[in-house]
């Protein structure tokens, strides 16, 4: 093909190039927006639940042995996300605060000492219970709205992220039992000094 022949053609626009590419491929390309993985959604729910439970916190800023001040809502969000996803020991929580981007997104730049987290969860059990209950309620509502019976793998991913073997409870009694089990598990670990 002669170079002068190309110079004589009018320049094509991006739209023309895309349309010709679609014709050649035989089907139009439509980008898909995929929903975020369950753990990302759960981190957002933990933050919302902690914000909704601020009225039950005893303090807004939290200091413990020259560590802090830390925002009570941030500590509450971290513990809500931890207990909601089955992470109870201080060692694992502190490791997640160093290495897990979702935990880091909940706490900010300064990570609390393990003793700070331990003291916070001992003093703020009422707020933690309230936040965790709200967390599971929102997760249950979210699953009811977006459950697709033809996609069991998605439901399995949610149950795995929440460390559950059965679907999320919807009845108030079973929801309360789930919250109590999670908080009691962390309390037992704390009392038995199994954190380290």
Describe the structure.
With 196 residues, this protein is mainly alpha-helical. The chain is built from ten helices and two strands, in the order αααββααααααα. Strands 1-2 form a two-stranded antiparallel ribbon. α3 (38-52) crosses α8 and α8 packs across α10. The protein is globular.
What topology does this entry show?
Blueprint: H1 3-8, H2 14-25, H3 38-52, E1 61-64, E2 67-71, H4 72-84, H5 90-99, H6 101-107, H7 114-123, H8 125-146, H9 152-162, H10 172-191
Antiparallel strand pairs: 1-2
Helix pairs in contact: 3-4, 3-8, 4-8, 5-6, 8-10
Name the features:
single chain, 196 residues, mainly alpha, two-stranded antiparallel ribbon, 10 helices, disordered N terminus
Order of helices and strands: HHHEEHHHHHHH
Biggest sheet character: 2 strands, antiparallel
The number of strands is 2
- Give me the Rg, rounded: 24 Å
Distance between the termini: 75 Å
* Low-confidence spans: 1-10
**Strand fraction:** under 5%
Q: Quick check: average pLDDT?
A: 81
Helix content: 55-70%
Helices and strands: which structural class?
mainly alpha
Shape assignment: globular
Total helices: the number is: 10
Q: Widest sheet: strand order? A: 1-2
Quickly describe the structure.
The chain is 64% helix and 5% strand. It is mainly α.
């Amino acid at each position: 093909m002669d170079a002068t022949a190309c110079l004589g053609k009018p320049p094509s626009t991006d739209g023309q190039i895309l349309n010709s590419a679609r014709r050649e491929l035989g089907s139009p390309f439509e980008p898909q927006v995929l929903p975020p993985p369950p753990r990302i959604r759960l981190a957002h729910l933990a933050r919302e639940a902690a914000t909704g439970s601020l009225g039950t916190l005893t303090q807004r800023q939290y200091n413990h042995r020259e560590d802090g001040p830390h925002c009570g809502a941030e500590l509450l969000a971290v513990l809500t996300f931890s207990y909601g996803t089955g992470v109870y020991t201080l060692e694992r929580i502190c490791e997640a605060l160093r290495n897990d981007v979702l935990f880091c997104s909940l706490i900010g730049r300064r990570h609390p000492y393990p003793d700070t987290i331990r003291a916070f969860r001992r003093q703020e059990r009422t707020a933690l219970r309230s936040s965790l209950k709200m967390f599971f309620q929102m997760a249950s509502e979210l699953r009811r709205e977006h459950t697709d019976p033809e996609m069991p793998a998605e439901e399995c991913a949610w149950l795995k992220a929440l460390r559950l073997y059965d679907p999320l409870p919807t009845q108030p009694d079973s929801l309360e039992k789930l919250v109590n089990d999670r908080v009691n598990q962390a309390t037992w670990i704390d009392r038995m000094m199994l954190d380290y």
